Structure formats: structure tokens, C-alpha cells
């Protein structure tokens, strides 16, 4: 119990940890609002206010987040040209997303002209979608390479029984795969939410689709950021 509490404290001390918690509030309240909208309008309105407040607070908390894209580009100096190219495209899209998200937040709280909100939302969501596509492609390629490397290690392990080195490498590959699967799940979910802003449609804009996508993204991020 104490270990769980310690991990929760560490998790909530991170900017991403707080973001995932508030994101959970945001999309749970969206689902509750949709569920009780016709039967309990007063309750639905309260949850709608919670949803809007959570969304705006997340935008405020992400101030300056676009600068992390530069750090993302420096993280793998030994990457192949292909992965460097994908990383540039992915992080460029994410930087556009977070940068214009600042203006979207300011327009929605009334600091800037409210008419800018729709345009800023489109640009931000477009950059977000663009970046997520390349993050997803990168993770899928790395997972494919991991599967191939794991097969070779399993074959080696069969030849050399009790190979501790091979077992450790297999464990790391599988652990990395789980994290990348969580990243892909989060990015696909966020891509659906961004698509709802870029090109509104019955599927992406349905409260159930948005609510589930938001929670998948939040909980996948929660898993990835939870202290090991």
C-alpha cells in the first residue's frame, strides 16, 4: 500500500501525470454529460462545466510544452536517417499542435478575440494529427524490428540453454513493445479526437467516440508514466 502511495505521489509530481489525471476528469465528465443530458439536464450542465474547465486547465498547464519537441529530436542522436526523418516530422507536428494550442486557450478564455478559436483549433488539430501519424509509423516499425530480434534471440536461446544475456534482451524487447503499444493506442485515440476538429463527422464527433478515445489516451499515458 505504501509503495502504491509513493508511486502515486511521484506520478502526480510529473507534468504528464497531472495532465493524464485531469484528462480523465475531462472525458469522464463528457461521457456522464452525454448519458444524463436528456434525463437530468441540471446534472448534465454541471458535468459539461467540469469538462470545459478541465480542458481549459490542461491547456494552461501545457504552456511552453511545444519546446519539448526540440528535446525529442535530441534524444536519439544515433538513430538511422529514416528514424531521424520520421522524428523531425512527428515532433514538428507536435510542436505546431502545442504552440497554436496556446492561442486557442487564450481565445477561449476571452484574452484574444473569440473568433480566432475555430481557426486556432483547426491549425492545432492539424499539426497534432500530422505528428501522431509519424509517431505511430515510427513505433510500428520499431515493434516490427523488435519482433524479428526477439525471434533470433529465442532461436539463440534454444541453441545455448539458460542464456541469461538472451533472456534479459528478450525481457527488454517485450517491455519496450508494451510501452510502444500503449503509445500507439494513445496516439490513435488522440488522432480520432483531432479528426473531429479538422473534419467533423458523425463517428469522430459522437460523444461516446470522443469520450472513449479520451480515456484510452489518458489511461495509456497513465500506464506509460507510472513509476516502475
UniProtKB/TrEMBL annotation:
<keyword id="KW-0472">Membrane</keyword>
<dbReference type="InterPro" id="IPR008733">
    <property type="entry name" value="PEX11"/>
</dbReference>
<keyword id="KW-0812">Transmembrane</keyword>
<dbReference type="GO" id="GO:0005778">
    <property type="term" value="C:peroxisomal membrane"/>
</dbReference>
<keyword id="KW-0175">Coiled coil</keyword>
<comment type="similarity">
    <text>Belongs to the peroxin-11 family.</text>
</comment>
<protein>
    <recommendedName>
        <fullName>Peroxisomal membrane protein 11B</fullName>
    </recommendedName>
</protein>
<dbReference type="GO" id="GO:0044375">
    <property type="term" value="P:regulation of peroxisome size"/>
</dbReference>
<feature type="transmembrane region" description="Helical">
    <location>
        <begin position="83"/>
        <end position="100"/>
    </location>
</feature>
<dbReference type="GO" id="GO:0042802">
    <property type="term" value="F:identical protein binding"/>
</dbReference>
<keyword id="KW-1133">Transmembrane helix</keyword>
<keyword id="KW-0962">Peroxisome biogenesis</keyword>
<dbReference type="GO" id="GO:0016559">
    <property type="term" value="P:peroxisome fission"/>
</dbReference>
<dbReference type="Pfam" id="PF05648">
    <property type="entry name" value="PEX11"/>
</dbReference>
<feature type="coiled-coil region">
    <location>
        <begin position="149"/>
        <end position="176"/>
    </location>
</feature>
<comment type="function">
    <text>Involved in peroxisomal proliferation. Promotes peroxisomal duplication, aggregation or elongation without fission.</text>
</comment>
<feature type="transmembrane region" description="Helical">
    <location>
        <begin position="120"/>
        <end position="142"/>
    </location>
</feature>
<comment type="subunit">
    <text>Homooligomer. Interacts with ARC5 and FIS1B on peroxisomes.</text>
</comment>
<keyword id="KW-0576">Peroxisome</keyword>
Amino acid at each position: 500500500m505504501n509503495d502504491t502511495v509513493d508511486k502515486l505521489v511521484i506520478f502526480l509530481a510529473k507534468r504528464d501525470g497531472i495532465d493524464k489525471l485531469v484528462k480523465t476528469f475531462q472525458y469522464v465528465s463528457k461521457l456522464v454529460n452525454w448519458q444524463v443530458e436528456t434525463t437530468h439536464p441540471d446534472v448534465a450542465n454541471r458535468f459539461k462545466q467540469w469538462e470545459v474547465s478541465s480542458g481549459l486547465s490542461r491547456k494552461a498547464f501545457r504552456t511552453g510544452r511545444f519546446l519539448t519537441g526540440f528535446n525529442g529530436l535530441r534524444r536519439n542522436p544515433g538513430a538511422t536517417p529514416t528514424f531521424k526523418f520520421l522524428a523531425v516530422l512527428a515532433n514538428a507536428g507536435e510542436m505546431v499542435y502545442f504552440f497554436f494550442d496556446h492561442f486557442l486557450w487564450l481565445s477561449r478564455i476571452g484574452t484574444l478575440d473569440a473568433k480566432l478559436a475555430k481557426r486556432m483549433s483547426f491549425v492545432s488539430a492539424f499539426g497534432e494529427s500530422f505528428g501522431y501519424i509519424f509517431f505511430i509509423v515510427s513505433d510500428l516499425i520499431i515493434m516490427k524490428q523488435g519482433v524479428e530480434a526477439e525471434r533470433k534471440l529465442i532461436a539463440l536461446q534454444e541453441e545455448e540453454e539458460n542464456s541469461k544475456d538472451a533472456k534479459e534482451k528478450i525481457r527488454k524487447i517485450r517491455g519496450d513493445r508494451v510501452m510502444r503499444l500503449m503509445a500507439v493506442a494513445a496516439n490513435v485515440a488522440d488522432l480520432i479526437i483531432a479528426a473531429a476538429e479538422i473534419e467533423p463527422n458523425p463517428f469522430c464527433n459522437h460523444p461516446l467516440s470522443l469520450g472513449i478515445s479520451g480515456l484510452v489516451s489518458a489511461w495509456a499515458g497513465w500506464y506509460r508514466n507510472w513509476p516502475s
